[in-house]
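re: that chain from earlier
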Amino acid sequence: MIEGAPTACLRWMAEGHEYFVACLKAVDDADLLGPTVLPGWTGRHLLSHVGHNARALARLARWAETGEETPMYASPSARAEEIEDGAVWTTGRLRDFVIEEQDRLSDALGRIEGERWQASVVTAQGRTVPATTIPWLRCREVWIHACDLPGGGDFTAFPDGFTDTLIEDALTRRRGAQSVDVSVRFTDRKPGNGTVPGTVVEGPAADLARWLTRGIVSPGLRTGSGATPPELPAWL
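^ sequence. v structure.
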């Protein structure tokens, strides 16, 4: 691995892509024509998004590699337009598209060398971050969206280290940008106990990650008082 590269995130990204593809293989083409858990999106919208997200992140990788500003999207509306355009493709084309764009993203990340991993790039949300963040952004997409597929995957399949990082990432956003005063305590393993005051939600790590990112409250979650965990706004 190239010096300075975010080794763990690159590994999680590759594993997450493999998991997404494995879950996708179990989905019939007919099911991809129907709705998903994501409002307004069919399975084809979801595949279009996953493929176009890899393409957009590859633009950031080129920005980091070359220093030439290459935004994720050409305009504020471009992301939604790309997703809608791809949603009318055949399911066969979309299945191939997800794999092809992931390969291109991996190649683009592989061309970033040394100190260029610390080069600043700008996300679609307008955040300025180092290039080391790019693989993490892709990790979230492939692992979580595998669970959004019709009859798709489950958060219990996520690697422990990735789940821990995902929970911390989601908590940071909710406490900061959304001012949601919550912390968590794992009941199935020790790491990750919340240290920030506020409503403490207890439960298995996978259930906590699902609640923080998808707002889904499983029977295994509870607050310290035994109440139902609070309803959360959209994560991203």
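The two ends are 31 Å apart (CA to CA).
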